[in-house]
Structures are given as structure tokens and as C-alpha cells.
Amino acid sequence: MAEAYIVGAVRTPVGTKKGALKDVHPADLGAHVLKELVNRTGVDPSAVEDVITGCVMQVGPQSLDIARTAWLSAGLPENVPGVTIDRQCGSSQQAIHFAAQGVLSGTQDLVVASGIEQMAVVPMGSSVAMALEKGMPFPYGDGWAERYGQQEISQFRGAQLMAEKWGFSREDLEKYALESHQRASKAIEAGYFDREIAPIAGLSKDEGARPDTSLEKMAGLNPLREGWAITAAVASQISVGASALLIASEEAVKQHNLTPRARIHTLTVCGSDPVYMLTGPIPATEKALQRSGLKIDDIDVFEVNEAFAPVPMAWAADTGASLEKTNPNGGAIALGHPLGATGGILMTKLLHELERTGGRYGLQTMCEGGGQANATIIERI
């Protein structure tokens, strides 16, 4: 049976909206991790068969197939193509799936999966601006309205609906958010991320974690809407970052003298309620476990994207997963969420945490716009 291995994984530090990376061109962000991936693995870059890059806001400097632009900006061989994909927040996790599927199918041997998002330069929502200027309701047309009506569809409302359905109070959410900052601050101080980060623009550490935050500070923030439990404190941060992983077949490992670090064990993706939008990780995880033959307690580390605090909280409540093993070094509430890059960042974190702790299995999942979710299980070698 064919296997797909992760032989390299690297990311930039995650920068804040006004931080050290705010002026770095997104193609240069991507180029930086691509060059570092090639250097760290020692692979012949001309042997790479494709570069699959996740990016959500594909406009302006992130348009015109940034996968290709970033590869060429890195000075890497012109014979290697690139393609840019959008599965919303799960874009670079889906890039990993596509790369692994190319290898597992036997049609490819070496594929790069990467992610780029420069939210300081290309703000969230930029891709819908043109349609809105034309007076066209976007992206929901007549067929959508017939099916779901004219109700508000947004990640913010979805987070609030989840908090209400699962019975999470504002204080519950803020306690979770505080724990994320504390875990992230501890991990940064201990140097847990140092091996996986490729410093850029003078930045070598993630910028978002706030070791001095408190429940009292969070309680002073206004909710996003009157009566809601959702505030900025329990939401992921607007961020800048890039990630890159090299996926290889068994033949490529031998031919290029590469070192497998984990095998891709299970890949799943599913749809979920697009109004709630953020609940997809629950059925995606259940589907992944069923397909893999593993139980929730077999997993040593979980990375569940903290788009909003209710997401991992509801996910843990329904799957029975341990929150102690979930985002052990903090999540996007503290470390940031550069949209299309986050899937690769989480996988890079997951791999390195398994290596640091000696764990065997890791599971990654994340909610995605439109009501979708990917789930990936890897096995450390």
C-alpha cells in the first residue's frame, strides 16, 4: 500500500496586524518558508512536482496564483508549477490533503503544501469588495436565499449561536481564552516553537500572545453585539504568516535520502450547517476516527483551530476529547489566525509537539467558511 510522509515542516512566526511583518509582501512570506523547507530537507527543488498553496483572500498582491509567484520569488526552479486553492480557513490543511492524495495515488512523489495570508495588507473581506461595490449581494444569490432565507450568515453569528446552543457563558469563553494565552506564553518562553520557526524581518517569536492578560481585562471589553457572549478576547487574532510542508512517497524518500517524520494516516473532509458555520470539526473528527479505526483516547495531541472559543469547547464536549491534550501550546486566540496559512501552521505545530513529547498520533481539524471542516490524523515515525 502506498504511503505519504511528511519529511519537512516549517513556518514563519505569526505576526500581528501592526507588528514586524505588516509590510512584508505575501509572495515574499511564502518564498521565505519555501526556501527554508528546501534548505532544511536537502531536497533537490527541481524534483518537486507541484506546489499547492492555500490562500483565502486571492486579490491584490495575493492574486495571480501566489503559489507560483512565491516559488519563483524564492529563486527556485522554473520547471515546478504551483496552484492556489481556497477552502476558507482550512485552505492549507486542504493543500496538505491534496499533496498527500497525489502521493497516495501514485501519480506524484514529491509535493509541497503551503499556505500564505498577509492580513495586514489584504484584509479579511477584500475578495467580496468588488461585488458589494456593484450592488450585488455576495456570495449569496437567489438560490441561497430560497434555501436559507435572508438571515445573517457570518462567522461571528455562528460563534454566538454555538455559545448559546452549548450553553457557554461569556465567563466560560473568557476562561478558555485566558488558558490559551497562558499556554502560548509558556511555550514561547520555553522555546517549544523555535525548531519549527524560520525567522523573518527580524522576528523570531510569535507576536500575539499576551502573558499579562486577565479575566478582569477581558470582562471590560464590549461584546461584538449587545447581549452576545462573543468579544474580541475570545476570537482569533488578525495575523500575518506562512507555512510549508514537503510530502513524499516511499520511493522519493529513498531516492532523495529524505527522513520521514510522520506518515499521513487519515484524511477526511465534510460539510456542516452553513448558518452555524463553525461546527464542522465535530463530524469531521468523528468521520476521521471511524475511517482510521482509532478511538479518541488513542490520539496524543489535538490541534483544533481557535477561530472562536466556542469551537474547540463544543468540539471537546461532543467528541469526548481531552482539553488538556487540545492546543497544548495555545491556539489562534493567543497566537493568531492568518487564514489560508493556518492549516499548515497547525500541522507544523502538531508534528513538532509529537516529536517533543514522544506522542504517536496527532489529529488536526478546523472550522471553515460555508460550514465545512477538514480532519487529518498523522502518525509520528
UniProtKB/TrEMBL annotation:
**What EC number(s) does this enzyme carry?**
2.3.1.9
Cite a single Pfam family from the UniProt record. Thiolase_N
Q: Where is the Thiolase N-terminal domain?
A: 5-251
Q: Which residues form the Thiolase C-terminal domain?
A: 259-380
The residues responsible for catalysis, as annotated, are: 89 (acyl-thioester intermediate), 337 (proton acceptor), 367 (proton acceptor)
Query: Record's superkingdom?
Result: Bacteria
InterPro entries xrefs? Thiolase (IPR002155), Thiolase-like (IPR016039), Thiolase_C (IPR020617), Thiolase_CS (IPR020613), Thiolase_N (IPR020616)
Repeat keyword on record = no
Q: Which UniProt keywords apply?
A: Acyltransferase, Transferase
Q: Which GO terms describe its molecular function?
A: acetyl-CoA C-acetyltransferase activity
Q: Which family does it belong to?
A: Belongs to the thiolase-like superfamily. Thiolase family.
Which NCBIfam families does this chain map to? AcCoA-C-Actrans, PRK07801.1
User: Could you tell me what this protein is called?
Assistant: Acetyl-CoA C-acetyltransferase
